[in-house]
Design goal:
CATH superfamily: Rbstp2229 like protein
Oligomer: single chain
Radius of gyration: 16 Å
Number of strands: 7
Structural class: alpha+beta
Distance between the termini: 43 Å
Shape: globular
CATH architecture: 2-Layer Sandwich
CATH topology: TATA-Binding Protein
Number of domains: 1
Helix content: 25-40%
CATH class: Alpha Beta
Largest sheet: 7 strands, antiparallel
Number of helices: 3
């Protein structure tokens, strides 16, 4: 039996956008790879392979719903990232909330958890979203009133 732990990036009304696709998540991950590569060039070090030691992969059954990050490094293994929506009720008003789910499986390493936390924070900052971490703590990256 496989157990997973999850973190959630919830898009709220104050977020930059209210809906997200898996292709947009891939674009943000590629942007992350690009900026870490530029940092590596500035400090003359192969930082990108340390900051993002994964290949972005997609399966046929997960197409448009989820991707996984697979690493060839012995310190990392796998992170699963999916997008979905759910109905929520706020102030007696029912709305649809989009979210990104980041999952770690039994085969994920401590390195994967560290990278997943880092990626969660990056994605949440970029989207000005509400981040629910693996330890159930919440970080608000959107302007609160």
């Amino acid at each position: 039996m496989t157990t997973t732990v999850n973190a959630y990036i919830k898009l709220v009304s104050a977020s930059l956008q209210q809906v997200i696709t898996i292709d947009e998540v891939k674009e943000l991950l590629n942007y992350y790879k690009d900026i870490t590569n530029k940092t590596g060039h500035q400090v003359n070090w192969d930082y990108m392979n340390h900051a993002f030691p994964y290949e972005i992969k997609e399966t046929e059954d997960g197409k448009g719903k989820w991707i996984y990050l697979k690493s060839a490094s012995d310190r990392y293994n796998i992170i699963i990232i999916g997008v979905n929506q759910k109905k929520i009720i706020e102030n007696d008003i029912e709305t649809i909330q989009s979210y990104i789910q980041i999952a770690l499986t039994d085969s994920s390493t401590f390195g994967d958890k560290s990278k997943a936390n880092e990626l969660c924070k990056f994605l949440s900052k970029q989207l000005k979203a509400e981040l629910h971490l693996f330890n159930n703590r919440i970080i608000y990256y959107y302007p609160r009133r």
